Protein backbone atom coordinates (compact mmCIF):
# COMPACT_ATOMS: atom_id res chain seq x y z
CA UNK A 1 0.00 0.00 0.00
CA UNK A 2 1.44 3.33 -0.96
CA UNK A 3 0.97 7.07 -1.29
CA UNK A 4 1.44 8.26 2.28
CA UNK A 5 -1.39 6.17 3.70
CA UNK A 6 -0.24 3.84 6.47
CA UNK A 7 -0.75 0.14 5.84
CA UNK A 8 -1.44 -0.22 9.54
CA UNK A 9 -4.15 2.44 9.38
CA UNK A 10 -5.80 0.84 6.35
CA UNK A 11 -5.73 -2.55 8.05
CA UNK A 12 -7.24 -1.17 11.25
CA UNK A 13 -10.01 0.52 9.26
CA UNK A 14 -10.74 -2.73 7.46
CA UNK A 15 -10.87 -4.66 10.74
CA UNK A 16 -13.21 -2.14 12.35
CA UNK A 17 -15.46 -2.27 9.29
CA UNK A 18 -15.45 -6.07 9.34
CA UNK A 19 -16.34 -6.21 13.03
CA UNK A 20 -19.13 -3.69 12.58
CA UNK A 21 -20.62 -5.79 9.79
CA UNK A 22 -20.20 -9.00 11.78
CA UNK A 23 -23.16 -8.01 13.97
CA UNK A 24 -25.33 -7.97 10.87
CA UNK A 25 -28.89 -9.09 10.33
CA UNK A 26 -30.33 -12.14 8.67
CA UNK A 27 -31.29 -12.24 5.00
CA UNK A 28 -34.39 -14.33 5.69
CA UNK A 29 -35.62 -11.68 8.10
CA UNK A 30 -34.40 -8.54 6.34
CA UNK A 31 -34.85 -8.98 2.56
CA UNK A 32 -37.02 -10.50 -0.13
CA UNK A 33 -35.63 -11.99 -3.32
CA UNK A 34 -37.69 -10.01 -5.79
CA UNK A 35 -36.80 -11.45 -9.18
CA UNK A 36 -34.70 -14.04 -10.95
CA UNK A 37 -36.87 -17.19 -10.86
CA UNK A 38 -34.65 -19.03 -8.38
CA UNK A 39 -31.36 -17.43 -9.41
CA UNK A 40 -31.17 -15.61 -6.10
CA UNK A 41 -30.56 -17.89 -3.10
CA UNK A 42 -30.36 -17.28 0.63
CA UNK A 43 -27.64 -19.48 2.11
CA UNK A 44 -26.11 -20.54 5.43
CA UNK A 45 -29.29 -20.11 7.48
CA UNK A 46 -29.72 -16.57 6.28
CA UNK A 47 -26.15 -15.40 6.81
CA UNK A 48 -25.31 -15.04 3.13
CA UNK A 49 -27.00 -14.66 -0.24
CA UNK A 50 -26.01 -15.37 -3.82
CA UNK A 51 -27.25 -13.74 -7.02
CA UNK A 52 -26.71 -15.36 -10.42
CA UNK A 53 -26.99 -14.27 -14.03
CA UNK A 54 -27.36 -16.37 -17.16
CA UNK A 55 -28.52 -15.51 -20.66
CA UNK A 56 -32.18 -15.85 -19.66
CA UNK A 57 -32.20 -13.64 -16.58
CA UNK A 58 -30.35 -12.01 -13.72
CA UNK A 59 -31.61 -11.74 -10.15
CA UNK A 60 -32.07 -9.32 -7.29
CA UNK A 61 -33.29 -8.67 -3.76
CA UNK A 62 -34.85 -5.83 -1.80
CA UNK A 63 -35.02 -4.92 1.87
CA UNK A 64 -38.37 -5.48 3.54
CA UNK A 65 -38.13 -2.10 5.26
CA UNK A 66 -37.70 1.39 3.88
CA UNK A 67 -35.33 3.73 5.72
CA UNK A 68 -35.07 7.47 6.16
CA UNK A 69 -31.36 7.93 6.97
CA UNK A 70 -28.99 5.40 8.51
CA UNK A 71 -25.77 3.47 7.96
CA UNK A 72 -25.98 0.58 5.51
CA UNK A 73 -23.25 -2.05 5.17
CA UNK A 74 -22.83 -5.21 3.18
CA UNK A 75 -19.93 -7.49 2.37
CA UNK A 76 -19.68 -8.56 -1.26
CA UNK A 77 -17.54 -10.87 -3.35
CA UNK A 78 -17.91 -10.08 -7.03
CA UNK A 79 -18.06 -12.25 -10.15
CA UNK A 80 -14.54 -13.57 -10.87
CA UNK A 81 -12.81 -14.08 -14.21
CA UNK A 82 -14.33 -12.67 -17.37
CA UNK A 83 -17.28 -10.66 -16.00
CA UNK A 84 -17.49 -8.27 -18.97
CA UNK A 85 -21.00 -6.95 -19.55
CA UNK A 86 -22.23 -7.78 -16.05
CA UNK A 87 -23.26 -5.27 -13.39
CA UNK A 88 -23.47 -6.12 -9.69
CA UNK A 89 -25.25 -3.55 -7.53
CA UNK A 90 -26.03 -2.44 -4.00
CA UNK A 91 -28.07 0.74 -3.70
CA UNK A 92 -30.83 2.67 -1.95
CA UNK A 93 -33.86 3.88 -3.86
CA UNK A 94 -37.35 5.25 -3.43
CA UNK A 95 -40.07 4.86 -6.05
CA UNK A 96 -41.66 7.01 -8.75
CA UNK A 97 -40.52 9.53 -11.35
CA UNK A 98 -39.25 11.91 -8.64
CA UNK A 99 -37.34 9.20 -6.83
CA UNK A 100 -34.18 9.52 -4.76
CA UNK A 101 -31.32 7.04 -5.15
CA UNK A 102 -27.77 6.33 -3.95
CA UNK A 103 -25.98 3.96 -6.33
CA UNK A 104 -23.06 1.57 -6.07
CA UNK A 105 -22.70 -0.35 -9.34
CA UNK A 106 -19.76 -2.66 -10.03
CA UNK A 107 -19.09 -2.87 -13.76
CA UNK A 108 -17.56 -6.14 -14.93
CA UNK A 109 -14.35 -6.57 -16.86
CA UNK A 110 -12.32 -8.82 -19.07
CA UNK A 111 -10.00 -11.07 -17.12
CA UNK A 112 -7.02 -9.08 -15.96
CA UNK A 113 -8.78 -5.72 -16.10
CA UNK A 114 -10.01 -3.96 -12.95
CA UNK A 115 -13.64 -3.63 -11.95
CA UNK A 116 -15.12 -0.12 -12.10
CA UNK A 117 -17.17 1.08 -9.13
CA UNK A 118 -19.75 3.48 -10.54
CA UNK A 119 -21.48 5.76 -8.01
CA UNK A 120 -24.32 8.21 -8.49
CA UNK A 121 -26.77 10.26 -6.41
CA UNK A 122 -30.31 11.04 -7.53
CA UNK A 123 -32.60 13.57 -5.89
CA UNK A 124 -36.15 14.25 -7.04
CA UNK A 125 -35.60 12.14 -10.13
CA UNK A 126 -32.40 13.85 -11.25
CA UNK A 127 -29.00 12.16 -11.24
CA UNK A 128 -26.03 12.81 -13.54
CA UNK A 129 -23.71 13.06 -10.54
CA UNK A 130 -21.44 10.15 -11.36
CA UNK A 131 -18.07 9.38 -9.87
CA UNK A 132 -16.20 6.21 -10.85
CA UNK A 133 -13.30 4.41 -9.22
CA UNK A 134 -10.99 1.50 -9.60
CA UNK A 135 -10.33 -0.36 -6.36
CA UNK A 136 -6.96 -0.95 -4.68
CA UNK A 137 -7.66 -4.70 -4.38
CA UNK A 138 -9.25 -7.53 -6.37
CA UNK A 139 -12.92 -7.54 -5.26
CA UNK A 140 -13.42 -11.09 -6.54
CA UNK A 141 -10.85 -12.79 -4.30
CA UNK A 142 -12.57 -12.31 -0.94
CA UNK A 143 -15.32 -10.33 0.74
CA UNK A 144 -14.97 -6.58 1.21
CA UNK A 145 -17.30 -4.19 3.01
CA UNK A 146 -19.22 -1.50 1.12
CA UNK A 147 -21.07 1.13 3.12
CA UNK A 148 -23.37 4.11 2.74
CA UNK A 149 -23.86 6.65 5.53
CA UNK A 150 -26.88 8.81 4.78
CA UNK A 151 -27.85 11.62 7.09
CA UNK A 152 -29.50 15.04 6.65
CA UNK A 153 -26.16 16.77 6.09
CA UNK A 154 -24.27 14.40 3.79
CA UNK A 155 -23.92 11.03 2.08
CA UNK A 156 -20.62 9.19 2.65
CA UNK A 157 -19.72 6.13 0.57
CA UNK A 158 -17.02 3.89 2.04
CA UNK A 159 -15.06 0.83 0.96
CA UNK A 160 -13.61 -1.18 3.85
CA UNK A 161 -14.39 1.87 6.01
CA UNK A 162 -12.29 4.11 3.75
CA UNK A 163 -14.30 7.06 2.39
CA UNK A 164 -14.28 7.30 -1.39
CA UNK A 165 -17.04 9.86 -1.91
CA UNK A 166 -18.95 12.54 -0.02
CA UNK A 167 -22.07 14.24 -1.37
CA UNK A 168 -23.02 17.15 0.86
CA UNK A 169 -26.40 18.78 1.37
CA UNK A 170 -26.16 21.93 -0.75
CA UNK A 171 -29.80 22.96 -0.61
CA UNK A 172 -28.68 26.41 0.54
CA UNK A 173 -27.40 27.03 -3.01
CA UNK A 174 -30.33 25.38 -4.76
CA UNK A 175 -29.07 21.79 -5.14
CA UNK A 176 -31.71 19.10 -4.39
CA UNK A 177 -30.74 16.65 -1.64
CA UNK A 178 -32.42 13.31 -0.81
CA UNK A 179 -33.92 13.79 2.64
CA UNK A 180 -37.71 13.35 2.50
CA UNK A 181 -38.32 10.01 0.78
CA UNK A 182 -37.67 6.74 2.64
CA UNK A 183 -35.59 4.36 0.53
CA UNK A 184 -35.26 0.60 0.38
CA UNK A 185 -32.01 -1.28 -0.13
CA UNK A 186 -31.87 -3.11 -3.44
CA UNK A 187 -29.22 -5.32 -5.01
CA UNK A 188 -28.97 -7.05 -8.35
CA UNK A 189 -26.80 -8.89 -10.84
CA UNK A 190 -27.80 -8.20 -14.43
CA UNK A 191 -26.57 -7.97 -18.01
CA UNK A 192 -25.66 -4.52 -19.34
CA UNK A 193 -23.36 -5.48 -22.19
CA UNK A 194 -24.55 -2.50 -24.24
CA UNK A 195 -22.65 -0.07 -21.94
CA UNK A 196 -21.03 -1.68 -18.90
CA UNK A 197 -17.57 -2.66 -20.17
CA UNK A 198 -15.55 -0.16 -22.22
CA UNK A 199 -18.74 1.62 -23.19
CA UNK A 200 -20.28 -1.54 -24.59
CA UNK A 201 -17.35 -2.50 -26.82
CA UNK A 202 -16.78 -5.72 -24.86
CA UNK A 203 -19.81 -8.00 -24.76
CA UNK A 204 -20.85 -10.67 -22.28
CA UNK A 205 -19.28 -14.08 -22.91
CA UNK A 206 -22.22 -16.36 -22.18
CA UNK A 207 -19.99 -19.43 -22.33
CA UNK A 208 -18.79 -18.32 -18.87
CA UNK A 209 -22.33 -18.24 -17.43
CA UNK A 210 -23.77 -18.57 -14.91
CA UNK A 211 -22.12 -15.57 -13.28
CA UNK A 212 -22.47 -15.42 -9.48
CA UNK A 213 -21.86 -12.76 -6.85
CA UNK A 214 -22.12 -13.23 -3.08
CA UNK A 215 -23.42 -10.99 -0.30
CA UNK A 216 -23.12 -11.43 3.44
CA UNK A 217 -23.35 -9.46 6.70
CA UNK A 218 -25.99 -7.02 5.53
CA UNK A 219 -26.65 -4.37 8.16
CA UNK A 220 -29.05 -1.43 8.25
CA UNK A 221 -28.07 0.61 11.29
CA UNK A 222 -30.71 3.09 12.40
CA UNK A 223 -29.79 3.06 16.10
CA UNK A 224 -26.32 2.32 17.47
CA UNK A 225 -25.83 -0.41 20.08
CA UNK A 226 -25.80 2.18 22.87
CA UNK A 227 -29.08 3.68 21.69
CA UNK A 228 -27.43 6.69 20.06
CA UNK A 229 -27.42 7.68 16.41
CA UNK A 230 -23.81 8.63 15.79
CA UNK A 231 -24.24 8.31 12.04
CA UNK A 232 -26.92 11.04 12.11
CA UNK A 233 -24.30 13.79 12.26
CA UNK A 234 -21.26 11.82 11.08
CA UNK A 235 -18.71 13.68 8.98
CA UNK A 236 -15.11 13.04 8.01
CA UNK A 237 -12.40 13.88 10.51
CA UNK A 238 -8.92 15.00 9.48
CA UNK A 239 -7.75 11.46 8.78
CA UNK A 240 -10.93 10.69 6.86
CA UNK A 241 -10.36 13.69 4.60
CA UNK A 242 -6.79 12.54 3.97
CA UNK A 243 -8.03 9.08 2.99
CA UNK A 244 -10.69 10.57 0.73
CA UNK A 245 -8.09 12.68 -1.07
CA UNK A 246 -5.83 9.62 -1.40
CA UNK A 247 -8.59 7.58 -3.04
CA UNK A 248 -9.69 10.39 -5.32
CA UNK A 249 -6.14 11.20 -6.37
CA UNK A 250 -5.07 7.65 -7.16
CA UNK A 251 -8.23 5.63 -7.89
CA UNK A 252 -10.90 7.98 -9.22
CA UNK A 253 -11.25 7.56 -12.98
CA UNK A 254 -14.27 9.79 -13.62
CA UNK A 255 -15.75 12.82 -11.84
CA UNK A 256 -18.82 14.61 -13.17
CA UNK A 257 -17.53 17.91 -11.80
CA UNK A 258 -14.45 17.68 -14.03
CA UNK A 259 -16.24 16.60 -17.23
CA UNK A 260 -16.12 19.61 -19.53
CA UNK A 261 -17.40 17.66 -22.52
CA UNK A 262 -20.76 17.08 -20.84
CA UNK A 263 -20.93 20.77 -19.93
CA UNK A 264 -22.39 20.28 -16.49
CA UNK A 265 -23.23 23.33 -14.46
CA UNK A 266 -23.75 21.71 -11.08
CA UNK A 267 -23.62 24.39 -8.40
CA UNK A 268 -22.05 22.13 -5.79
CA UNK A 269 -18.98 21.70 -8.01
CA UNK A 270 -18.25 25.41 -8.25
CA UNK A 271 -18.00 25.74 -4.49
CA UNK A 272 -15.61 22.82 -3.93
CA UNK A 273 -18.09 21.03 -1.70
CA UNK A 274 -16.89 17.51 -2.58
CA UNK A 275 -14.52 16.94 0.37
TrEMBL record:
Its job: Catalyzes xyloglucan endohydrolysis (XEH) and/or endotransglycosylation (XET). Cleaves and religates xyloglucan polymers, an essential constituent of the primary cell wall, and thereby participates in cell wall construction of growing tissues.
Protein name: Xyloglucan endotransglucosylase/hydrolase
Active-site residues per Swiss-Prot or TrEMBL entry: 101, 105
InterPro entries in the cross-refs: Beta-glucanase-like (IPR000757), Beta-glucanase/XTH (IPR044791), Beta_glucanase (IPR008264), ConA-like_dom_sf (IPR013320), GH16_AS (IPR008263), XET_C (IPR010713), XTH (IPR016455)
Family: Belongs to the glycosyl hydrolase 16 family.
GO BP, sorted A to Z: cell wall biogenesis; cell wall organization; xyloglucan metabolic process
GH16 domain span: 21-215
Taxonomic placement: Eukaryota, Viridiplantae, Streptophyta, Embryophyta, Tracheophyta
Keywords assigned by UniProt, alphabetized: Apoplast, Cell wall, Cell wall biogenesis/degradation, Disulfide bond, Glycoprotein, Glycosidase, Hydrolase, Secreted, Signal, Transferase
Extent of the signal sequence: 1-24
Entry-linked CDD domains: GH16_XET
Pfam family, one: Glyco_hydro_16
Location(s) in or outside the cell: Secreted, Cell wall; Secreted, Extracellular space, Apoplast
Glycosylation sites: 109
EC number(s) reported in the record: 2.4.1.207
